[in-house]
Amino acid sequence: MTTLTLALSKGRILDDSLPLLTAAGIAPTGDAERLLRLPSQNPDVSLLIIRATDVPTYVAYGAADLGIVGKDVLLEHGGDDFYEPLDLGIARCHLSVATRKDSPLVHGERPFKRRLRVATKYPNLARRHYAERGEQVEIIKLYGSMELAPLVGLADVIVDLVATGNTLRANGLVEVEKICDISSRLVLNKAATKLKHDALHGLVDRLRAAVETRRG
Ligand code: AMP
Question: Which of 96, 94, 51, 53 shows the shortest CA–CA distance to 77?
């Protein structure tokens, strides 16, 4: 029997994936909080629980045959290392530019000549976004708590995920531009789609059916 390894992004995406994994018969059977590698309800499918930003790497190298990861991480990773057959419609949010609510940038004014300073954990995505409109910006790479950067003068704007908008509001920031919608995607290792064709496509079909049932 062909065995498959599925890489899952820990945190919000894992939580939102659980109903779909259960419907597809591959819910984790071990302690998903602590174990990095654990069995699923299906003896032929094992699960890896890893950081979202590492999922593309595991799938591209074939350490996982497939993965569940946010579109934000895929856009930042870039390239065409894997197939992306299914939008799971979970962990929905959008990627936006935000600034202090008292900033002149809110009204489209730019009272300085230097390059715009953009704090983000998505440097490639942010640079591409501004390059598309012909603007060179200074990217400041951060690993978390982006909302702080405009408040302490580290950056003029942030590029970050927004779901309810509560985090921005709580920190006195406002969205000035929506870049794109984000949701979690299923990605497949390219070689596995040939070498493990039947097993892999069987699992993709079960996940697709689970997504469609959930959409109603
Ligand atoms: P919210 O306050 O609901 O707008 O959520 C914003 C905060 O949650 C920000 O720190 C985001 O980086 C994070 N966030 C929102 N949606 C997601 C998601 N789908 N995946 C990972 N982080 C998210």
Answer: 53
